[in-house]
Structure formats: structure tokens, C-alpha cells
């Protein structure tokens, strides 16, 4: 649980800063999508991540956001929504796969450890 908390305490603000940077960086200077809906998505989920830390449920955030990241990689490859709004790049796809798998596994580990404690 402590690792989930630490990761979310770092990852939440990183998401918020990523969203803000997306608005400030000119599109031609960015390796990742700078689409406004995508930037807003990052800011909102960064805030949700921090709220989940304070609610003592960071493992659920990591698992859920990891699955969302994996979906985004699949959606980009298969031209599924919200690709037309988020305008992902190849760099976004790589980040989604790596972070998605890592976060989902970390969150699942935390969920399973919590269930062990309940027994």
C-alpha cells in the first residue's frame, strides 16, 4: 500500500503539470499531443489521483488509471474514441503502454494485499 501511495503522490502532480504544460507548449515543439481535451483530461485525473491518496485508496486509482492508459494505447492503434479529440502521437502510445501496464499491476498488487489484510 505504501508504494501505491508514493507512486500516486508523485504521479498525480505530474499529470497536473503535464496538462498545464500541454497548454503552454507550442504544438510543433511537443513530442506528445497538445490537444486541449487531452490536457484537461490530465489535469482532472491528476486531481482525482491526489484525492484518492487522501481517501486512502491510491491502489484503486493506479489500477483504474493503468487500465485507462492501456485503453488509450489500443484506441490510438485501432482508431477508437477519443482519438479524434486527444490526437495521440507515437510517444503518447509508448507512454500509455508502459505506464498503463505498470500502474495496473501496481494497483492490482495493492488491491490484493488489501484483501489479504481483511481476511
What does this structure look like?
- The protein has 119 residues and is mainly alpha-helical.
- The chain contains 5 helices and no strands.
- Helix 1 (2-24) runs antiparallel to helix 2.
- The longest helix has 29 residues, at 90-118.
- The relative contact order is 0.17.
Features:
mainly alpha, globular, 5 helices, 119 residues
What's the short version?
With 119 residues, the protein is mostly helical. It has helices at residues 2-24, 36-54, 58-78, 83-86, 90-118. The chain has one domain (2-118).
User: Beta fraction of the residues?
Assistant: under 5%
What portion of residues is helical? over 70%
- Rounded Rg: 15 Å
User: If helices are DSSP runs of H or I spanning 4 or more residues, what is the number of helices?
Assistant: 5
Q: Note poorly predicted spans.
A: none
Specify the structural class. mainly alpha
Can you tell me the number of structural domains? 1
User: What can be said about the biggest beta sheet?
Assistant: none
The arrangement of helices and strands along the chain is: HHHHH
- The global form is globular
Q: What is the distance, rounded to the nearest whole angstrom, between the alpha carbons of the first and last residues? A: 16 Å
Q: State the total count of DSSP E strands.
A: 0
Average predicted local confidence, pLDDT: 95
Amino acid at each position: 500500500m505504501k508504494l501505491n501511495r508514493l507512486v500516486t503522490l508523485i504521479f498525480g502532480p505530474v499529470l497536473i503539470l503535464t496538462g498545464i504544460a500541454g497548454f503552454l507548449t507550442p504544438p510543433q515543439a511537443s513530442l506528445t499531443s497538445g490537444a486541449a481535451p487531452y490536457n484537461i483530461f490530465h489535469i482532472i485525473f491528476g486531481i482525482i489521483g491526489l484525492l484518492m491518496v487522501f481517501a486512502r485508496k491510491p491502489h484503486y486509482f493506479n489500477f483504474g488509471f493503468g487500465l485507462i492508459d492501456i485503453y488509450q494505447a489500443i484506441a490510438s492503434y485501432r482508431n477508437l474514441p477519443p482519438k479524434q479529440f486527444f490526437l495521440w502521437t507515437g510517444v503518447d502510445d509508448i507512454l500509455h503502454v508502459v505506464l498503463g501496464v505498470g500502474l495496473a499491476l501496481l494497483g492490482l498488487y495493492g488491491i490484493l494485499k488489501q484483501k489479504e489484510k481483511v481476511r
